Amino acid sequence: MISSSKLKAVDFYRKIPRDLTEASLSGAGLSIVAALCMMFLFGMELNYYLAFSTSTTVIVDQSSDGDFLRIDFNISFPALSCEFASVDLSDVLGTSRLNITKTIRKFSIDSDLRPTGSEFHSGPISRDIKHGDENHEIGEEPLEGSVPLTAHNFDKYSHMHQILVVNFFAPWCYWSNRLKPAWEKAAKIMTERYDPELDGRILLGKVDCTQEPDLCRRHHIQGYPSIRIFRKGSDVRDDHGHHDHESYYGDRDTESLVKTMEDMVAAIPVDSQKIALEDKSENTTQNAKRPAPSAGGCRIEGYVRVKKVPGNLVISAHGGAHSFDLTKMNMSHVISHLSFGRTINPRAIADVKRLIPYIGGSHDRLDGRSFINNRGIGANVTIEHYVQIVKTEVIVRGTHKILEEYEYTAHSSLVQTTYIPVAKFHYELSPMQVLITENPKSFSHFLTNVCAIIGGVFTVAGILDAILHNTVRMMKKVELGKNF
Q1: Given 82, 173, 209, 298, which residue is catalytic?
Q2: How far, in Å, CA of 443 to CA of 441, rounded?
Q3: Phi-psi region for residue 379, left (φ > 0), alpha (ψ -120 to 50) or beta?
Q4: CA distance between the termini of the chain
Q5: 481 CB contacts (<8 Å, ≥6 apart)?
Q6: I want to staple 202 with a disulfide (CB 3.0 to 4.6 A). Which of 28, 163, 168, 340 is the partner?
Q7: How many helices, marked H, and strands, marked E, lie in the chain?
Q8: Are the beta carbons of 352 and 324 closer than 8 angstroms?
């Protein structure tokens, strides 16, 4: 059996009798300084251990959210009518989608971006518009059946007749010229059946927008031809000068036009003084009439899903059977919101920014930006945005993903074009992604550092104390003239 005397032989911490030790003022000072140093360094080490530290790496995109990317946007166009505003998509794989409506909402706005009513429903047209009188010879003047309207007599006629149907046209427009024979013939038929002087229920008129630009602008005409239906008593003009009337998008042959007019007149009794309300009866042309835009601007909001390849999101004026005066198109716009990927909760972004301050600063870089065409009428300016997108993921505790976002950079320019002006967003996804991971902290490493701090400071303080003590002793011996 091992005796206690043998165990004492391996004692690393042999004790010196207290009577053999000597306390000094310099030692006390060093002890206080050493204790303060230990406390300070321990606090620094504890703060480092508790702090959230990350490492950033760039890797090949390993997205788990599929092959499609969501684009959310809210863009206001002060000079583009909701009637013709179209959202189109295309990409390098050949995918092309025109006039997307399913996930898009439109609201008429004025020049100050203020909404002027409820949501504008454009309504899809599932077939090509039929035109009549194809045998009409070029150069042959059709019968004049409709009444020419000007800024001076428009209000008079609109108050005289319960229904005023107006063809806003431009002589240079191909589609206006195709409509003209059928329109004049239909107007003559309706005049014969419903004499404007004796009956007074309906009148067909026409406005040449090259001669009456102010009148066309007042009714927010941007595409030609535009057929508007004004109903006496329901076409109310409010304090902003907006109107509540309908647009006709149906077939443009004589038979269809006459059938539409007959259906509208049938709902109004002869000699009735009542307001001409909208015809609610079921008929084949009910889908051809929709509310006309109440202002000349449009706010377009919603989202689209695109393939993760380079592509274009294009917003422009589009009409299958309409022409546009390119010199008067202005695609100035204000971007209220543009982001890519899943919608991120602002609170989640705020929480992550407290840990990683530089994150989340570029996922909505274009929000609140205005892009205005100041080059004047006739400039034919397309506004282009080149957007480069990079995915960023934040992962903590090894596998827990707390944030997945798409950040982007954007470069914009105004470009003159010979084609119809558009607002184009060219997007391109990076094949790489940024991965931000939490650096794990070992508790054993923290304990080791604490021990190193305590032991190191204690040892260094002891060395300094010995040096100081021996130096003081030597100085005293020199002063006493002793040899050592």
Answers
A1: 173
A2: 6
A3: alpha
A4: 50
A5: none
A6: 163
A7: 8, 21
A8: no
Q: DSSP class of residue 196?
A: T
Round to whole Å and give the CA distance between 135 and 469: 121
The band of 265, judged by pLDDT with boundaries at 50, 70 and 90, is: confident
- Contact of 301 with 101, CB cutoff 8 Å: no
Q: Which of 120, 100, 90 is closest to 304 using CA atoms?
A: 100
Backbone angles phi, psi at 28, to 5 degrees: -65, -40
* Measured distance CA(233)–CA(242) in Å, rounded: 14
Interatomic CA distance for residues 407 and 424, integer angstroms: 19
- Phi-psi sector, 132: left (phi>0), alpha (psi -120 to 50), beta: beta
Is 173 tagged catalytic?
yes
Query: Which residue, 71, 67, 72, is CA-closest to 93?
Result: 67
User: Where in 154-237 does DSSP place strands (E)?
Assistant: 163-169, 202-208, 223-224, 226-231
In 10 A of CB 299, how many CB atoms? 25
One-letter amino acid at 279 equals D
Q: Is the pTM of this model over 0.85?
A: no
Beta bridge partners of 171: none
Please state the rounded mean pLDDT for residues 224-242. Answer: 65
CB–CB of 154/215 below 8 Å? yes
Altogether, the residues listed in the chain come to a count of 484
- pLDDT in the model for residue 7: 75
Place 282 in a pLDDT band, splitting at 50, 70 and 90.
very low
d(CA 412, CA 75): 15
What is the DSSP code (8-state) at residue 41? H
Contacts 24+ apart (CB under 8 A), 454-459: 454/38, 454/42, 457/34, 457/37, 457/38, 457/41, 458/34, 458/38
Q: For residue 83, what are its two tokens?
A: 């009637």
The DSSP call for residue 21 is: -
Structure tokens, 52: 């959230």
Q: Please, are residues 393 and 403 in contact by the beta-carbon 8 Å criterion? A: yes
Find tokens 């001076």 and name the residue.
Answer: 152
The H or E element that residue 255 is part of is helix 254-266
